[in-house]
């Protein structure tokens, strides 16, 4: 349930505005308890309110993925309806050997009307940067 992961993140909010220096090992005891109470092989953001999903940013996704240690445990990620995501928030998944089943970045949920379609903010460069 992404709502539990988001709650765990809220208990670890850094004083800075970025999660890039977030240390998974410095989680509060409350966050650890919330995260450990759930198996995180699937994270489906379609399970949260549509309005909240549309407001989530890359920082929110980054923090959530980091908080649950997604690189080592997450098999499926569904970001349906998270229309504000550019892709940089997926960085905690780099090098994952368990994320093999699915990454869904659909702009609308499975039961939502696709018209008018929201505009995608996903950046190919953010998701798969070119290396020289």
Shape: globular
Spatial strand order of the main sheet: 1-2-3
Taking the sheet with the most strands, its summary is: 3 strands, parallel
Give the class from helix and strand content and strand pairing.
mainly alpha
The count of helical stretches stands at: 6
Number of strands: 3
How far apart, in Å, are the first and last alpha carbons? 38 Å
Strand content: 5-15%
Order of helices and strands: HHEHHHEEH
The Rg value, from CA coordinates, equals 14 Å
Helicity, in percent? 25-40%
Q: Which SSEs are present, and which pair or pack?
A:
Layout: H1 2-10, H2 29-36, E1 42-44, H3 50-55, H4 58-67, H5 70-73, E2 76-78, E3 102-104, H6 124-127
Parallel strand pairs: 1-2, 2-3
Which properties best describe this structure?
31% helix; three-stranded parallel beta sheet; mainly alpha; 132 residues; 7% strand
What's the short story on this structure?
The chain is mostly helical and 132 residues long.
